[in-house]
Amino acid sequence: MSVFEIRRRQRDLKRLHDECELNYQRLQQIMPDAMILGASIRVLYRDKPLSGMRLEVIEVTKYTSTVLIVADRAGPQWLPEIELKARMYRDARMAEVIEWCTDRTIPWALSEHKGMQARDEKWQWSMFLSELLSHGLHHGITELEA
After folding, report:
1. CA quadruple 19, 122, 82, 104: dihedral sign
2. Do 143 and 42 contact (CB within 8 A), yes or no?
3. How many Å apart are CA 141 and CA 146, to the nearest integer?
4. In the chain, what are the domain boundaries?
5. What is the pLDDT of residue 5?
6. Tell me, what's the pLDDT at 74?
């Protein structure tokens, strides 16, 4: 491995960590009750009142919370809902996507192509979570659920 590849990988890891820190902050803004198991919140978009996303805390441990995020179908009927699970690390103040569409677990390190996964899949899903949460913060109205 060349020095250039090592530097590029380190830079990408730094960017991934920065994005995970920002995603943690965004999740905290949308869902401040992330330490309460079963806490749920619904974000409705102002520009499309019948669409939005739902966030629910499905697991709480000593240092982490796992949040299920379901983005409503906003397009054609054949387009499925988007489901992702994000783990919030309270001690590191980071959040990462750990699963998407209920059947694709993202491994910690993608050193080779396994199945149909790309090497930068973890990065792509972190960026998608970033865009989804940013859109919810800028264009959404929150509703508390019991």
Report:
1. negative
2. yes
3. 17
4. 3-145
5. 60
6. 64
Q: Which amino acid is at 5?
A: E
Q: How many other C-beta atoms lie within 10 A of the C-beta of residue 133?
A: 25
Q: Determine the Cα angle at 77 with ends 71 and 79, to 5°.
A: 50
Measured CA to CA, the distance from residue 34 to residue 81 in angstroms comes to: 22
- How many angstroms separate the CA atoms of 90 and 111, rounded? 27
SS3 21: helix
Q: What would the two tokens of residue 87 be?
A: 């783990």
d(CA 66, CA 133): 15
**Residue 30 in contact with residue 55, Cβ under 8 Å?**
yes
Q: Which residue has the tokens 């965004």?
A: 26
Write the pLDDT tens digit of every residue in 111-123: 444 555 566 777 8
